[in-house]
Amino acid sequence: MNRILVIGGTGTVGSQVLSQLAATGAQVRAMVRDPGAARLPPQVAVVRGDLTLPETLNSCLDGIDVVFLVWTAPAAAVAPALERIAKHARRIVFLSAPIKTAHPLFQEPNPLRAMVEQIESLIETSGLEWTFLRPGMYAANALNWWAPQIRAGDAVRWPHLAVPTAPIDERDIAAVAVRALCEEGHAGAEYVLTGPQSLSQFDQVSTIGRVIGRSMRIEEISPDEARQELLNIMPAGAVSMLLNAWAAASGQPAFVTSTVRDITRMPARAFADWVTDHAAEFRA
Ligand SMILES: NC(=O)c1ccc[n+]([C@@H]2O[C@H](COP(=O)([O-])OP(=O)(O)OC[C@H]3O[C@@H](n4cnc5c(N)ncnc54)[C@H](OP(=O)(O)O)[C@@H]3O)[C@@H](O)[C@H]2O)c1
């Protein structure tokens, strides 16, 4: 049985990967920066490590066959961390992004994209067996983007409301990750993962209102106005990346794949189902 190390297991996707792996009885270890704060399933062994402190990776990687990697650390730490991972493990499943998909939502140049390309290129030349997961927009973005406004009142102010995306449930990304971590046959695969449906941002906010039983006033604001407001909830680089991507994708249906179903043999969860399961987080 593969011994698996999950890096990023306290985050949106990694926490789902850990709980799904724990349910399979796999041998799982989580590398976390603060073991005291991590609330992880009891079957998971927790080890302290930090991607920006490469010497801390050795004990985390000792005896590990397969690594699940979420990267949100600075670019300067990429090369030394991957060097250590490649020394110990045989296989890596990297949570990437749809950087090769010819849809305007995914093709705007940005600094994050350059880092993802760097990580992938180092993995490809590392000798590791690799699988890249390329999810589109997360359904969970709604928690950062809209939940604060919805908890505070009945109005949501947002730019590019007509732009559609196909929001994906983090449990579906994790389900594909678990297959790639535990099964053979995923080497060299690049899985572009989306939710099942193209839905405008307006329809996504309306869905939240419908599910939680509130009628929302959804107001389009200009990209310039949005830039100021979004800077309160995300870094400037992420704001520019999103505003540019939405502008580029205006007038196009979202890119939708069947990969979740193809790999897991279960249909990708609808956005309304994701909202139903997170309804409490939108209520005041
Ligand atoms: N949001 C989207 O729509 C979207 C779409 C496509 C791709 N992606 C990609 O998805 C990734 C983010 O996934 P996510 O939302 O699941 O992540 P997340 O919730 O932001 O969690 C990040 C994880 O990385 C850990 N981490 C951060 N810095 C670390 C370090 N120096 N050493 C060790 N661990 C560290 C965090 O641990 P702590 O608990 O210690 O902070 C946390 O577990 C990004 O690479 C993003 O580009 C996102």
Model description:
With 284 residues, the protein is an alpha/beta fold. The chain folds into two domains: 159 residues, 3-Layer(aba) Sandwich (Rossmann fold); 100 residues, UDP-galactose 4-epimerase, domain 1 (Alpha-Beta Complex). It is 42% helix and 17% strand. The chain is built from 13 helices and eleven strands. Strands 3-2-1-4-5-6-9 form a seven-stranded parallel sheet, with helices on both faces. Strands 7-11 form a two-stranded parallel sheet. Strand 4, helix 3 and strand 5 form a beta-alpha-beta unit. Helix 8 packs across helix 12. The longest helix has 14 residues. The chain is globular, with a radius of gyration of 19 Å. The chain starts with a strand and ends with a helix. The model has no long low-confidence stretch (mean pLDDT 97). Bound molecules: NADP nicotinamide-adenine-dinucleotide phosphate (NAP). NADP nicotinamide-adenine-dinucleotide phosphate binds next to helix 1.
The gist of it:
By secondary structure, this protein is of the alpha/beta class. 42% of the residues lie in helices and 17% in strands.
Radius of gyration: 19 Å
How does the helix and strand content classify structurally?
alpha/beta
**Secondary structure tally, helices:** 13
CATH top level label of the largest domain: Alpha Beta
Please tell me what the overall shape is.
Answer: globular
What portion of the residues fall into strands of 2 or more residues? 15-25%
The set of bound ligands, ions and cofactors reads: NADP nicotinamide-adenine-dinucleotide phosphate
| Name of the CATH architecture of the largest domain | 3-Layer(aba) Sandwich
How many strand elements? 11
Q: How many discrete domains?
A: 2
Biggest sheet overview: 7 strands, parallel
Nearest-integer average pLDDT: 97
